[in-house]
Amino acid sequence: MASTIKKRSARKKDSAPSFVSGERKQEVLGVAIIGIGLLTLLALVTYNAADNPVAQRFSLDLLLRPGDRSVVNALGLTGAWMSRLLIPSFIGYAVLLWPGLLVAWGYALLRHRNVEALKTTSLLVLGTSFVLSTLFGWISTRMDMDIQSWTGLWGTGSATWMQSVFGQSGSLLLLILIIVLAVLLLVDRDIQRSMDRLENVFRSVYGKAETWWLQRSTRREARTERRRQLLEEERKAAARESRERAGEREKIRAEEAAAERRKEVLTTPENELQDSERDVEIHVHEQIVEEKARRGKQNAFRTGKYAFITPPVDLLNEAETTGPRVDYDELEDNKQILLDKLATYNIEIISIDAIVGPTVTLYELTPAPGVKISRITALENDLAMALAARGIRMIAPIPGKSAIGVEIPNRHRELVLVRDVVETRTFSETTMELPLIMGKSIEGEVVLQDLTKLPHMLIAGATGSGKSVGVNTFIAGLLYSVPPSLLKFVMIDPKKIELSVYSQITSHYVAMPPEADDAIITDFHQALGTLKSCEKEMELRYDLLKEAGVRSIREYNDRFQKGGLSEEDGHRLLPYIVVVVDELADLMMTAGKDIEAPIARLAQMARAVGIHLILATQRPSVDVITGLIKANFPARVAYQVASKVDSRTILDQNGAEGLVGNGDLLYMLGSRVMRLQGPFVSLAEIDRVTGHIGDQEGPGPYILPSIETEAEVMGGAGSTASQDRDELFDEAARIIVRAQQGSVSLLQRKLSVGYARAARIVDQLEDAGIVGPFEGSKARSVYIDDQEALEEFLRGSTS
Predict the structure, then answer these.
(1) Which of 38-52, 159-173, 472-486 ranks highest by mean pLDDT?
(2) Given pLDDT bands bounded at 50, 70 and 90, which one contains residue 638?
(3) Residue 252, in any domain of the structure
(4) How many C-beta neighbours within 10 Å does residue 621 have?
(5) Is the domain of 438 the same as that of 579?
(6) Based on C-alpha coordinates, what's the Rg of the chain?
(7) Same domain, yes or no, for 697 and 746?
(8) Residues 544 and 424 placed together within one structural domain of the fold
(9) Same domain, 746 and 688
(10) Domain limits for position 587
(11) Rounded to an integer, what distance in angstroms lies between the CA atom of residue 614 and that of residue 579?
(12) Residue 45 in this model has a pLDDT that exceeds 70
């Protein structure tokens, strides 16, 4: 007992806060270094050679008794002495790079950033400043110019030495080569990637030049053909006049009538539009090239006594190619097919723009004045057949443009990897609370969405369309951007294999009720209890927000971190909770109404307290995505689905049935629909990332409130006690499920009972969640699809 008391007192003594914490000391040091850097920059920028005589006599006595010695430098005597020491007496104006380093180091310390990456950058910048000084010295000695303020003593001496060792030309080329290498390393540190980008630029310029030359030649040939036709018409007119003068008017009339009949037979809309086709040019738009973030950056966080380091990017696979490959032959072929097919129906197109994306190319067709949009959209299947494409999608019209969009799959798709997104500055510098990686747009732009603004996500897609990979992409993006102290996952996986890899992050990122057997919930009853537990967590959080006098979790956490809320009053840092369900259809098939109620309640109310839902299903039917669920999920993602009915169920419009699979998706937010290519992440990559997290010591899972009774799990009124049910309840349930028709008259016939008893049994079936509510003259909906699921439900309700 005495030892326990001693340990507690020692722990209290260790946890006593010091006057200035280590983090605060680091912030003060960062501010001081930034101030020194700015003062140094001010002294260097205002350097004046007229201050040198005073600066040469700089001493402590001069500082204490400056007298009337005025200087031009904005930092006074100290600035004059410092600038003279660094500029003419050292490396010249190249020293202006140094204050920037000081500011960068100070900012990194102030924001608690990882300073390991700055060490290499600092060495490169310092080396570059000395090389620049030498280059200025080379120019000074070669041009016989006196620019000591640019060269410094170092520049003049090193340039003279290099010219004597390597000669005039050799020393210049060597200096330029060193500077180019230093700039490449500073900008990207990946010389191969930089060379690939330069090569892509040259190829793009060459391709455009070649296309322009071909189009110019085609226009020249068209003008020559028109001139020949005009000359031919003039020759015929002259011959006609000569025949008329010769008295052959009747013969001319007969010939004209015959020519008119031949024209009616042979002339087609395709011939009428032939000249206009030749003048249509295709304009290929440049892809957006996302800027890469500096590599080697890993953020470190601390939660209590546990330190956490975010996963390194090297755990993810790197793409073999950089950027989409533009196949100009494919663009030209598709353009000509579109024009020919539309010309067959006498539809004229005056311009075509092409935007090449990772998976599809968007052709923006501008029709001639007077052409109805409906005439073009009616030809969607004809165009798909003519193009021999796996499926095309039409956007009529494109919002904000007087054009019609036709999305055609590329022959060679670009593989977009999660690493391609994580390495971009768009992702690494985002200010979103919970950034979801949606994918790349047709323009090549990385698209992110903040889950806190959506606030929930509904995902649907057939088997093999990329739905499970999309869920893994969302989770991977959150693991790379949000620390464990601010994010927890509730993972429900009825199929037992989709989310099992995330069991490694239990100690850091997983939230679970105390009754759960495993971090990844796979049992139906535990899934229902977990959703009810999330409801309780929501209610407890609302109580905390009410006591704090705030309206959102962000305001609450800001106030708590600033010391405005006390832990003694029960307040704590509230992490975001993301509930991931894959697969929703399995849960809805087992007990639709019981599962639907907590999902709908969380979707309606949980946004303000930081609880968000991601629901995924491969069966987007109306009995899975019910109207109540759908109404609370404005953000939806549709991968390739089996039919137009499924597409309308998830998106309220057609289109998802024509996607090409493998991550090709339609993202809908409100009424806006965008086509994206979802990034690919393999299970091996996910395993490496979760392994990196699992190898670090963590505080353990986030414990949700306990669900105390079975009745509370099943939802009160929805769990009618078996002793209160009619003795024919089980048999009636089997009849209803077998017929898939919730009807009182059906039970009267099959069970040979009166109307009152049959109606009472139907009410009990509704309370149990087997059939739906009364719908007038229509039969009630049946929520359980097969006998096996029913028997499992009946066993669970009587146990």
Answers:
(1) 472-486
(2) very high
(3) no
(4) 15
(5) yes
(6) 37
(7) no
(8) yes
(9) no
(10) 418-701
(11) 6
(12) yes
Highest mean pLDDT pick, 88-102, 112-126, 251-265, 424-438: 424-438
Q: Letter for the amino acid at 228?
A: R
Question: Could you tell me if 683 and 790 lie in one domain?
Answer: no
d(C-alpha 325, C-alpha 666), whole Å: 23
Q: Which of 91-95, 690-694, 751-755 has the lowest mean pLDDT?
A: 751-755
pLDDT on residue 777 = 59
Q: If phi over 0 gives left and psi between -120 and 50 gives alpha, with beta otherwise, what is residue 716?
A: left
3-state secondary structure of 720: coil
What span, in angstroms and rounded, lies between the C-alpha atoms of 541 and 755? 48
402 inside domain: no
pLDDT value, residue 753: 81
Q: How many other CB atoms are found less than 10 A from the CB of residue 173?
A: 12
**Domain-terminating residue out of 666, 701, 736:** 701
d(CA 487, CA 501): 18
Helices (H), 635-743: 644-651, 683-694, 710-714, 729-739
Q: Which residue in the block uniquely carries the two structure tokens 């310092």?
A: 126
Domain end residue (candidates: 158, 175, 193): 193
- For 63-115, the pLDDT digits (tens) are 555 554 577 888 888 888 888 888 888 888 888 888 988 888 888 888 877 77
Pairing of strands 664-669, 457-460: unpaired
Q: Tell me the C-alpha distance between 653 and 646, whole Å.
A: 9
Per residue in 491-528, is it b (16+ CB within 10 Å) or e — as a string? Answer: bbbbeeebbebbebbbbbbbbbbeebebbbbbebbbbb
| Domain presence at residue 94 | yes
The H or E element spanning position 595 is helix 584-605
pLDDT tens digit string along 199-242?
Answer: 767 777 877 787 788 777 777 877 787 777 777 777 777 766 66
> Are 621 and 570 contained in the same domain?
yes
Supply 765's token pair.
């079936």
Burial level of 127, CB count in 10 A (0-12/13-18/19+)? Answer: middle
What's the rounded Cα separation, in Å, for the pair 308 and 305?
10
Taking residues 368-375, report their average pLDDT: 88
| Alpha helix segments (H runs only) across 347-415 | 373-377, 380-387
For the chain, the distance separating the N- and C-terminal CA atoms, rounded to the nearest angstrom, is: 46
Lowest mean pLDDT among 77-81, 365-369, 479-483: 77-81
Quote the pLDDT of residue 267: 43
- Residues pairing with 409 in the sheet: 360
User: Which residue type sits at 263?
Assistant: K
For residue 717, give both structure tokens.
């009124």
Res. 613: pLDDT tops 90: yes
